[in-house]
Amino acid sequence: MMDTLGKFMQEWEKYLNQDVVLKRRNEHIQSSIEEGKAVVEIDIRGRGVFTIILKEKRFYLRAGKVTQPLLSLSVPLSLFKEMLVGKERILYALLDKECALSFDTPHFTHWNGTTALAVILAAQEVVKKVPKVKKMVEEL
């Protein structure tokens, strides 16, 4: 049986692949994210590491670390929850002293970096727009 965090991750992946703006970004000529590249890796301390990979113009979310994601974030569960439910602004959460943030330079270009940040923003959006997902996050 899948735990609540796993169910949230499934909903986030589904939302990412339904997002029209992200789809256009990935198909745009300025997008240079390599096939199979990890766009975002999130280490939710004490709960696991999750990676969002772009493959065949679709996002795939899986458990586990990768070698060099575009954006890597290590965050405590409490701050992750606050960010998802909108109690903490994403930018402030990323800069919080409790977080560790790193980038794959030079691949973290203006275009690709914005896409990586949009992936994180989508997590907050799905919580805001889908009541059952918000309930999941509150239960974490």
Q: Secondary-structure blueprint of this entry?
A:
Blueprint: H1 4-18, H2 20-27, E1 37-45, E2 48-55, E3 58-63, E4 71-76, H3 77-84, H4 90-95, E5 100-103, H5 110-129, H6 131-139
Parallel strand pairs: 1-4
Antiparallel strand pairs: 1-2, 2-3, 4-5
Provide an overview of this structure:
- The protein is an alpha+beta fold and 140 residues long.
- It has one domain: SCP2 sterol-binding domain (Nonspecific Lipid-transfer Protein, Chain A, 2-Layer Sandwich), CATH 3.30.1050.
- It is built from six helices and five strands; from the N terminus they run ααββββααβαα.
- The chain has a five-stranded mixed beta sheet.
- The longest helix is centred in the last third of the chain and has 20 residues.
- The model has no long low-confidence stretch (mean pLDDT 91).
Fill in the keyword field for this structure.
alpha+beta, Nonspecific Lipid-transfer Protein, Chain A, 140 residues, 24% strand, 5 strands
User: What's the helical proportion of residues?
Assistant: 40-55%
Given helix and strand content, the structural type is alpha+beta
In the predicted model, the low-confidence regions spanning at least 5 consecutive residues are none
CATH homologous superfamily assignment: SCP2 sterol-binding domain
